[in-house]
Design goal:
The chain folds into two domains: 3-120, Alpha-Beta Plaits (2-Layer Sandwich), CATH 3.30.70.360; 127-231. It is built from eight helices and four strands; from the N terminus they run βαββααβααααα. The relative contact order is 0.17. Helix 4 packs across helix 7. The chain is of the alpha+beta class and 235 residues long.
Length: 235
């Protein structure tokens, strides 16, 4: 899984009557729309492992008033935290290139406020932990790949954990309708079925056995630690 950071932006303008004297206003919502549209244009020039996605959280609700406020949320993603850090620009007041873009692609309103939340780092998978997990799942009659054939472009705070201690991030499939993936109502319904719960229980048991092995088998613990020292990112 990849590195990710949340970025919030608040655009502030000036109210005016939309029918009487709209020229006296400064449209904060237009500033967000400009950023939204320009980010959409930017995507064709972004590397395949990069993502920026955004949503409008709040703006004024009165249709005959030029909006003086808009609030948006953005997420930027990159294949690793090291790639992300290399894109920082120390000459600007924004903590990463994503927030710099968001502030400067929508500049109708004055001085948009940009704040960045804690990032999610990419995951450093521990080879030995993955082997142990795979072997315990086999004991329950489950066959899984040790690692995914492609990098998943989702993100998780487990990535941060994996840069501090040895870690794995287990995923498992549940039956769904064709074409259904996470973050929609159809997947939520599938996740609530008995068979999905049964699969989750098996995975939970296998993970518990991995933890038990590490706590009780010194040689296995040493192998896990050695793998982590070799594989972990310098960041």
């Amino acid at each position: 899984m990849v590195a990710r950071q949340y970025i919030g932006a608040e655009y502030r303008g000036k109210n005016a009557h939309a029918g009487g004297n709209p020229w006296a206003g400064v449209n904060a919502l237009d500033s967000f729309v400009a950023a939204y549209n320009n980010i959409s244009l930017l995507r064709q020039q972004m590397a395949p492992d990069e993502r920026i996605h955004n949503v409008l959280l709040n703006s004024e609700q009165t249709v005959n008033v030029i909006p003086a406020y808009a609030k948006a949320a953005y997420q930027t993603r990159s294949s690793s935290i090291s790639n992300w850090l290399r894109r920082q620009n120390p000459k600007v007041r924004y903590p990463d290139y994503g927030s710099y873009i968001i502030a400067h692609l929508g500049t109708i309103a004055d001085n948009p406020r940009v704040n960045s939340d804690a990032y999610y780092a990419d995951i450093v998978l521990n080879d030995t932990l993955c082997d142990i997990y795979k072997s315990h799942l086999a004991g329950y009659g489950q066959t899984v790949a040790k690692t995914a054939s492609e990098i998943a472009t989702a993100s998780t705070d487990q990535g941060n954990v994996s840069h501090k201690i040895p870690a794995l991030h287990a995923v498992f499939a549940i039956p769904t309708e064709p074409g259904v993936k996470p973050h929609n109502a159809a997947f939520a319904a599938a996740a609530g079925t008995d068979i999905a719960h049964e699969k989750a229980l098996v995975v939970g048991k296998a993970l518990a056995l991995v933890g038990f092995d590490i706590l009780t088998k010194d040689k296995m613990y040493a192998a896990v630690k050695a793998d982590w020292e070799r594989e972990k990112s310098p960041n």
